[in-house]
């Protein structure tokens, strides 16, 4: 008999006692080393452990000596080696089948789910929007040139996602697991179940969070680099500037901030600077402002399927703001440029 055969027989005898906590310290180390040798060994151990838990639950172990029964079977088979599957089948014959299935699922399927979980990334093209349903049924709307990374399965005490760009979150309520949105500017928004909008483009010098309903906590670093948290109330917008660490809070109807997810553009006494920012995302263009006086204007209006040219003509008629397309010699330029003067 080879050393491998001896090891196999020793482990075969030790596993039942290991599950019951009856092994010595040396025997326990031998079993643990065997488990670490191969992934299949770990799965076998989980199966046997699950079977023993089920057996214990039914109090079968009080009336049936499984080790003795197995030794009898071994003797009758002239010491023929019994496979792990045969071993588990014989124990299973003594168990309640529904309970056995439930326990095996709990131990096996849980491990398999954790093993196959992986990060998923959703991106939107310039000028486009999309929506995605997360594993917990949270619905996320992504604005133009945005990306969202999230796990294919939420595990642990929190539901964490990463956002670059703009998104509206309709979070499924779960008081035991907070929902966390991390941005490229090292800030986080924590919620349990609520509706809110986050704008956090990597190239922008600010992050804005607009709360529609519920409650959120905005975590950030102040000018001194210390961690801070501000709680938002519904119908409020928080603007954070990472470079200076400053924050500003505004009351808002939320219409302008979240209309994009429904394919609309809503201006509610919105400054021209913010308007151009919104139009740039929606129509994938860059605006070049030639006069500072234009930044002093603000507008109110609602647009949906209108072309960009028609919206700009509205500004021209109402406030004598002129515009024109700029030609570019750079072949690599992906966006059209429009001069506002």
Automatic annotation (TrEMBL):
Source species of the chain: Phocaeicola massiliensis B84634 = Timone 84634 = DSM 17679 = JCM 13223
PANTHER family per the UniProt record, alphabetical: PERIPLASMIC SIGNAL SENSOR AND SIGMA FACTOR ACTIVATOR FECR-RELATED, PROTEIN FECR
InterPro entries in UniProt: FecR, FecR_C, Ferrdict_sens_TM
One Pfam family per UniProt: FecR
Gene Ontology molecular functions: sigma factor antagonist activity
Protein name: FecR protein domain-containing protein
Domain Protein FecR C-terminal span(s) in chain numbering: 264-330
Superkingdom in the source lineage: Bacteria
Stored Gene3D superfamilies: 2.60.120.1440, 3.55.50.30
Occurrences of domain FecR protein (ranges): 121-216
């Amino acid at each position: 008999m080879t050393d491998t055969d001896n090891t196999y027989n020793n482990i075969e005898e030790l596993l039942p006692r290991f599950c019951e906590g009856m092994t010595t310290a040396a025997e326990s180390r031998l079993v643990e080393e065997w488990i670490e040798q191969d992934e299949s060994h770990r799965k076998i151990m989980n199966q046997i452990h699950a079977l023993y838990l089920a057996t214990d639950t039914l109090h079968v172990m009080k009336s049936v000596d499984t080790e003795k029964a197995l030794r009898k079977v071994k003797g009758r088979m002239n010491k023929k080696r019994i496979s792990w599957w045969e071993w588990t089948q014989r124990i299973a014959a003594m168990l309640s089948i529904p309970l056995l299935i439930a326990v095996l699922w709990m131990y096996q399927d849980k491990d398999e789910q954790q093993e196959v979980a992986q990060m998923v990334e959703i991106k939107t093209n310039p000028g486009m929007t999309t929506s995605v349903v997360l594993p917990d049924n949270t619905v996320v709307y992504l604005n133009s040139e945005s990306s969202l990374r999230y796990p294919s399965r939420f595990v642990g005490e929190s539901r964490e996602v990463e956002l670059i760009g703009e998104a509206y979150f309709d979070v499924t309520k779960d008081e035991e697991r907070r929902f966390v949105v991390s941005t490229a500017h090292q800030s986080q928004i924590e919620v349990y179940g609520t509706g809110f909008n986050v704008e956090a483009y990597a190239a922008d010098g600010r992050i804005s969070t607009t709360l529609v309903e519920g409650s959120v906590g905005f975590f950030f670093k102040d000018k001194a680099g210390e961690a801070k948290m501000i709680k938002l109330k519904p119908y409020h917008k928080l603007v954070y500037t990472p470079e200076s660490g400053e924050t500003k809070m505004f009351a808002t109807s939320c219409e302008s901030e979240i209309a994009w997810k429904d394919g609309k553009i809503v201006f509610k006494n919105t400054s021209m600077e913010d308007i151009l920012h919104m139009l740039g995302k929606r129509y994938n263009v860059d605006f070049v402002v030639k006069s500072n006086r234009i930044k002093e204007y603000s507008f109110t209006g609602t647009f949906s399927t209108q072309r960009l040219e028609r919206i700009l003509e509205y500004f021209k008629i109402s406030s004598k703001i002129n515009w024109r397309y700029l030609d570019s010699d750079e072949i690599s330029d992906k966006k059209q440029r429009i001069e506002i003067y």
